[in-house]
């Protein structure tokens, strides 16, 4: 993975609805940008994937539980109720901030529940039920439509402990590496590298974010030039197992 | 920031020693890759910067304290002593892993103290004393040598809470944004984005890591195509202030 990398935004993808053929829209957008190439990794924003999968909630249909009413403080308790339903465990709260572990094991703000860029102020977008399956499905559909086997990453913006700001990370992965394991490899001086695991899929997601922006309606990007020996990892590989986690 | 991004590895930089003219070596390497361009961001691995700044320690000169002897378990207590000296606070330990807050406020494994790729098994490389000053100095030296004002990021590989693997982050920043603050901006549907801060310098560092690798002796990369309105942040901006931190 020592060649030059290109990160190409995919433009002209319209506002999405449940059931839309996202793969076809991505292929069309890629064609307008010169087409896919072998070993490309396609990064797609979680929100685009969630919308076509119908992972949206209408707040008018939500009845907040007593727990949600208590936790919500001056926020909309229906939104808090949705967050609680998406959570396996609440790690920290400082209103309006809720840091939760999702049912997938991701630790993030609001259990990944997001309002911005949605259908309206009363519509929330949830994370996909199984982001790895979403990535796999998009990969299959793009291969069907365009005859090329890409890597696919479903990305989202997560905050971090100890550092300000969000970076995009990989929730779902198919056809590309999630983690590059250098344990046992030797560095340029001949020393063995101890337990060096690089979260390459998170770095790829972050690189894609730099061209996708938040406000521009660009829900996807191509990352070109990664090593063809990139592998086939899973987004779930990037979740630290609870028993190894020093911070849960 | 919606154009195409290019990430270009800088090759042919030799093993570095204290006092080496890193800026001149980077400019030479850039010339071999077609030269710098306006608005390029130059990402340089912390280890390269630390070596030329003489931030290396010879273990044979270290006398471990009783605390280091106790914490070291079956590791070299002299190495543990160096980690303790670089730390403001030890957050977690699970031998051989030590998660520490450095004197700069960074939270990372071994307080950033690293052996691999160093001069020999008895030589450790420490983080720069002031990574923002290191970035600023490199930026000044490159402008002096090549007549172009770049952004500069000094990067290192950090682990994260809750997620496996490391991603590269920005320790020092000069001449480019650290955080892109979208608070108050509107998304493509017209909704205000609440408190959206993107750690762009960390994402840029991560993108550069994808071409730098760990084992290839490529200590720097150019990231080209970022918005010219990128700003002038600091690596210290990326450290979550202790009073706002939910995880310290």
Mind explaining what this structure looks like?
2 copies of one chain form a homodimer. Chain A has 2 domains: 6-46 and 129-227, 60s Ribosomal Protein L30, Chain: A (2-Layer Sandwich), CATH 3.30.1330.100; 56-125, CofE-like domain (CofE-like fold, Alpha-Beta Complex). In chain A, 25% of the residues lie in helices and 24% in strands. Chain A contains 6 helices and 12 strands. The first copy, chain A, has a 5-stranded mixed sheet, with helices on both faces. The model of chain A has no long low-confidence stretch (mean pLDDT 91). The interface between A and B is large, with 76 and 76 residues. Strand 1 of chain A pairs antiparallel with strand 1 of chain B, so a sheet runs across the interface.
Q: On the 0-100 scale, what is the average pLDDT of chain A?
A: 91
The CATH homologous superfamily of the largest domain in chain A is named: CofE-like
What is the fold-level CATH name, i.e. the topology of the largest domain in chain A?
60s Ribosomal Protein L30, Chain: A
Helical/strand content category of chain A: alpha+beta
Strand order of the largest sheet of chain A: 1-12-2-8-9
Largest interface: A-B, 76 and 76 residues
> What is the element string of chain A, with H for helices and E for strands?
EHEHEHHEEEEHEEEEHE
Radius of gyration over C-alpha positions of chain A, nearest whole angstrom:
19 Å
Number of domains of chain A: 2
Distance between the termini of chain A: 33 Å
* Major beta-sheet overview of chain A: 5 strands, mixed
Question: How many DSSP H or I helices of chain A?
Answer: 6
Oligomer: homodimer
Q: Say how many strands of chain A there are.
A: 12
């Amino acid at each position: 993975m020592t060649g030059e990398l290109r990160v190409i935004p995919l433009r002209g993808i319209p506002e999405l609805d449940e059931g839309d053929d996202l793969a076809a829209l991505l292929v069309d957008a890629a064609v307008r940008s010169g087409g896919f190439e072998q070993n490309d990794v396609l990064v797609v924003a979680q929100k685009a994937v969630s919308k076509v999968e119908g992972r949206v909630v209408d707040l008018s249909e939500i009845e907040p539980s007593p727990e949600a009413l208590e936790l919500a403080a001056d926020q909309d308790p229906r939104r808090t109720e949705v967050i609680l339903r998406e959570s396996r465990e609440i790690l920290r709260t400082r209103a309006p901030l809720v840091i939760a572990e999702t049912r997938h094991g991701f630790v993030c703000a609001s259990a990944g529940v997001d309002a911005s860029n949605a259908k309206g102020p009363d519509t929330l977008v949830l994370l996909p039920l199984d982001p790895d399956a979403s990535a796999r499905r998009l990969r299959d559909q793009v291969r069907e439509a365009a005859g090329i086997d890409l890597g696919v990453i479903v990305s989202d913006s997560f905050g971090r402990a100890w550092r300000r700001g969000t970076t995009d990370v990989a929730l779902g992965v198919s056809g590309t590496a999630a983690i590059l394991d250098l344990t046992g490899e030797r560095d340029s001086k001949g020393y063995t590298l101890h337990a060096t695991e690089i979260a390459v899929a998170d770095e790829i997601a972050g690189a894609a974010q730099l061209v996708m922006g938040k406000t521009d309606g660009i829900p996807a990007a191509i990352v070109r030039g990664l090593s063809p020996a990139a592998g086939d990892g899973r987004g779930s590989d990037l979740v630290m197992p609870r028993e190894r986690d020093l911070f849960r």
